[in-house]
Design goal:
Length: 479
């Protein structure tokens, strides 16, 4: 059975040890491969360097890489989410009064939230290229430092128009933050992203802008360059043998570890694949709800459900803790049973149930609050689910870069919708906003259904030798 290409599997390594003393392949713990696939240097081929590593050695180095990168990338993304979505907490704590945001013509609060996404969309395409040019260590650490300084400026705002300008700047800086930490086999992708999202989900539970600049320093010290940059000192926390194994595994998996020369034709070539746009649509629909809840959940709890300011601030945290649990559980399920679309569909249905309870459990405040758990969990768990769904089903560095741009663009458009649908005039029921949010999840279900049908049909044709998928004979879509 052919292996599927996977998302950005740069960090797949083992501790290079000589295995000549081992008595048999079974005792070494090797994963056996079809002899026909053992052609080094060919797309999807098998590289002999893989024979020098046992499964236990691979797992040990994976843990080493995980411990270095997942907590740090998660922390950086944590402050990123915190800095872009903490407006709602400030709003119920007095910002709406101090900056005179209660006027509804225009709805100043909605304007402040959505302008972030304007620059977030516009500057996304060049940042995917710049990330590759500068490398994640310099690029991400610098951006984190700059947006931390911008957030400090938020504390000195005297009028709402100044806040609009700062939000525009914040969008430029945060769009360049594309944390990449992936390793292992295809079945580890979703678990890896779920663990990353688990760390980042704490952004809605705790944190302060003052730590952002400090996190930037940690990023400069501990982030690493891409493994194909053999001259970079930051990659030397693993051995040269391990680095070579990383490249070999990526090439075996999807044959695109080596950097391809950049051309606009290659980069824009991804636009011809309709599936790329389908992934962006799913991601945009997921972020419509996740951003809506981030920007308006405290306001809904305060104005819609009648909780006082302090209680509303505290009640925001539990739904996100529950969301972290759902992320891990769906990640485990997806990896174990090699299912991606099913996880996305489950999260969408969970979100629909939660939104329905939030909007139509009239007269029962506790039930409506309970609905926020399902809505928050479904929307936020679908962020890593959709990311993994698209990453497993594309190959080629510049197509991946273009797909990254469409995903972030789709997510930003979802943020624009989510930041405008919950209007103050619709309080306390917020029926229009909840209806739009539910509709976005229905779109996800329809899109995943279409993709699943197409993937299974295309895989059958590839199995019969009638078609080559994504330019690689061994490639199979992950439904």
């Amino acid at each position: 059975m052919s292996t599927n290409p996977e998302s950005e599997k740069y960090f797949v390594a083992g501790n290079g040890s000589n295995s000549d003393e081992k008595s048999s392949d079974h005792e070494k713990g090797y994963s056996h491969h079809d002899e026909a696939a053992r052609a080094p240097g060919t797309p999807g081929g098998y590289d002999p360097i893989l024979d020098q590593y046992t499964d236990a050695e691979v797992a040990r180095v994976i843990r080493k890489i995980d411990l270095r990168l997942i907590p740090l990338c998660g922390l950086m993304y944590c402050v990123s989410l915190l800095d872009r979505t903490n407006l709602s907490n400030a709003a119920i704590a007095g910002m709406t009064v101090e900056l005179n945001l209660r006027t509804t013509n225009p709805d100043r609060y909605s304007v402040i939230t959505l302008v972030f996404f304007l620059t977030y969309v516009i500057f996304q395409p060049p940042t995917t290229i710049l990330t590759r040019f500068f490398g994640p260590r310099i690029w991400l650490a610098t951006l984190t430092l700059l947006w931390g300084a911008t957030m400090i400026g938020f504390g000195f705002v005297k009028e709402w128009k100044t806040l609009v300008g700062l939000r525009l700047i914040l969008g430029v800086l945060e769009v360049g933050f594309v944390p990449v930490h992936s390793r292992g086999s295809q079945t580890e992708t979703r678990w890896d992203r779920a663990a990353f999202s688990l760390v980042s989900s704490t952004s809605l539970v705790l944190g302060t802008d003052a730590i952002t600049c400090g996190v930037a320093g940690l990023g400069y010290l501990f982030l690493v360059s891409f493994p194909d940059n053999e001259k970079a000192k930051s990659i030397h926390f693993i051995s040269e043998q391990d680095r070579r194994l990383i490249i070999a595994r990526v090439n075996q998996d999807r044959s695109d570890a080596d950097l391809e020369p950049f051309t606009y034709k290659k980069w824009l070539g991804g636009a011809a694949d309709w599936k790329v746009w389908a992934y962006g649509l799913c991601f945009g629909c997921a972020t419509t709800v996740s951003y809506a809840l981030a920007y308006f959940l405290p306001l809904i709890l305060n104005q819609g459900l009648g909780y006082d300011t302090g209680t509303a601030q505290c009640l925001v945290a539990p739904p996100y803790a529950f969301a972290a649990i759902i992320m891990i559980l769906t990640g485990w399920f997806g990896d174990k049973y090699k299912q991606r679309g099913a996880c996305v569909a489950f999260n969408a249905m969970l979100c629909i149930i939660g939104l329905a309870v939030m909007g139509w459990a009239y007269g029962d405040t506790r039930a409506r609050y309970f609905g926020t758990f399902f809505a928050t969990a479904g929307a936020n768990a679908n962020v890593p689910s959709v990311l993994t769904y698209q990453a497993n089903n594309i190959r080629g560095q510049w197509k991946r870069a273009f797909c990254s741009a469409t995903l972030v663009g789709g997510g930003a458009l979802g943020g624009i919708v989510g930041s405008t649908v919950f209007r103050s005039a619709d309080a306390p029921a917020y029926v229009p906003g909840l209806s739009v949010a539910m509709g976005s999840q229905v779109v996800i279900l329809i899109t995943v259904g279409i993709l699943t049908f197409v993937f299974k049909s295309q895989n059958k044709k590839a199995d019969r030798g009638e078609k080559v998928l994504e330019g690689l004979p061994e490639f199979r879509y992950t439904a």
